[in-house]
Specification:
It contains 2 helices and 8 strands; from the N terminus they run αβββββββαβ. It has 117 residues and is α+β, with helices and mostly antiparallel strands. It folds into 2 domains: 30 residues; 85 residues, no CATH class. Strand 6 and strand 7 form a beta hairpin. The model has no long low-confidence stretch (mean pLDDT 81).
């Protein structure tokens, strides 16, 4: 194959990849995706009500590392994402498969940092 033909095929493939990536982004979570208050978890019972993500507050939990030694510890690390059901007040954990998505937090109505003792 000549160089120009290979270059044209490469450009077509790159355009196709760009279209696929755009579709993938459009299919990713947005503020209208639904979240259900889990009915039973180890932390209690939820009501099962379904909400759009855009109506919920994302709670970024943090966990504390106590001081140890001469210079180590005494800081907070980010933990899992959670949300509180507006209907029943149940605290729901976000499943780990959703947590890895880039910019996941931006779909929530607000983001709140929570520092648990």
């Amino acid at each position: 194959m000549n160089r120009e033909l290979l270059k044209a095929k490469l450009e077509l493939m790159e355009a196709h990849i760009a279209r696929v990536e755009k579709l993938r982004a459009e299919l990713a979570l947005d503020r209208h995706n639904l979240m259900a208050c889990t009915e039973t978890t180890c932390s209690g019972e939820g009501c099962g009500t379904v909400f759009e993500i855009g109506a919920l507050v994302y709670m970024q939990t943090h966990w504390y590392v106590e001081p140890y030694g001469c210079t180590d510890g005494d800081y907070w690390n980010p933990g899992e994402g959670q949300w509180v059901c507006p209907e029943c007040g149940h605290r729901n954990r976000l499943i780990s498969e959703l947590e890895h998505l880039s910019n996941f937090k931006r779909f929530f109505k607000a983001i709140k940092d929570v520092y648990d003792d």
